[in-house]
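User: Hi! I'm working on a homework problem where we have to compare a predicted structure to a textbook description. Could you give me the structure for the chain below?
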Amino acid sequence: MDKFRITGGRPLSGRVTVSGAKNSALPCLAAAILTPETVTLHNVPYVRDCMTQRRLLEDLGATVLVPDLRTHKITAANIELFEAPYELVKTMRASVLALGPLVARFGKAKVSLPGGCAIGTRPIDLHLEALKLLGAQVSLESGNIVARAPQGGRLVGSDVTFPKVTVTGTENLLMAATLARGTTVLRNAAREPEVEDLADLLNRMGARVRGAGTDTITIEGVEALGGAEHTIIPDRIETGTFLVAAAITGGELEVKDCRPDHLGAVTGRLREAGVEIEEVNPTTLHARRSPKGLVARDVTTEPYPDFPTDMQAQYMALLTQAAGSARVTETIFENRFMHASEMQRMGASIRVESNSTAVVEGPTGLSGARVQASDLRASASLVLAGLAARGETVIERVYHIDRGYEKIEAKLRAVGADIERLRESVTAQLPPAETLTA
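Assistant: Happy to help. Predicted structure tokens:
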């Protein structure tokens, strides 16, 4: 497995460009299942999760053409398989987004129970109960979710209230409802920009979706959807990661091709913590550490538009360099502090009080160490810590960061970071000698 080697202590300086949002591209790719016509997506990030989703579409029988690195043309006219297998779903829970489109268009779907990052239980029972309200028959068979439309082959519109905000659940039901008979109302729906982006694509395809971006979404079902062309929104989490990178290294960065209006909670908290952020224009932010230094400020993760769980680890890295004590409270996932122990290996003063609370004391001088990434955002936080640390840091299992950040080492190197990818040699990939037989 690849590793990153980072020699820290270099202030970053220059311009960095934000890629398309992985968390928007994945449901938009899945939405192409809803029509036999071609859906063209631009600004798809070149990350492992999107490649996995593309492979899933191809396995189902769709044709995916990639005329350039970030454009995908998907034609799902000849879907022959209605199953998302374990081999793919175990690596990326977003594969479950095939469930709603498959059962909506074809009346049947089988999806393996999802995997992904090891950051706590992320049950999909909310998806399944909501699908049942649309008339689907749902069962669990040998580790697979099997869903069938009611007699007649079409889902039926319904009033659905999610007991808990779920982004993927909202997206799954949003797609399923576009082809349902009648009107569906989703209450306590996720308000994330990625949900709004998916709704924008669906409306371009001929769907009738209102209210995306609020907690109540209304979908009037239609007989069929058609092709469309759509550009994926910029990745707000990548944007936030680079804002932290500027501050934690004592440098300054111009972050281009972003959406500042999607980052209100993040930029607000970073400013309170001593990061100077200027909106250069509607798509560009300039960030640097305040001359007065960083100051500790508590943070609590909440669903959008509040502070995102996907920025919690990066913010914790920043707090190691801030003066004072700050409490980090995680309300979305119950096991998302695994990066804390790795930062402690680098000298951070972090006390994990429970699955939901950690206290960071700073500033501390971080020292390079060999650390291991446990999930996508933990990987990013360890990169940030490595950039701020003295000496050399080696981060193992960076396949996690490849799932959601496009060529992050190249982007950081272009603005002055001393970072390189270490690839495993052929010899290192061979089985141990004692396992070989003559």
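For your comparison, note the following. The mean pLDDT is 92. The longest helix spans residues 48-60. Good luck with the assignment!
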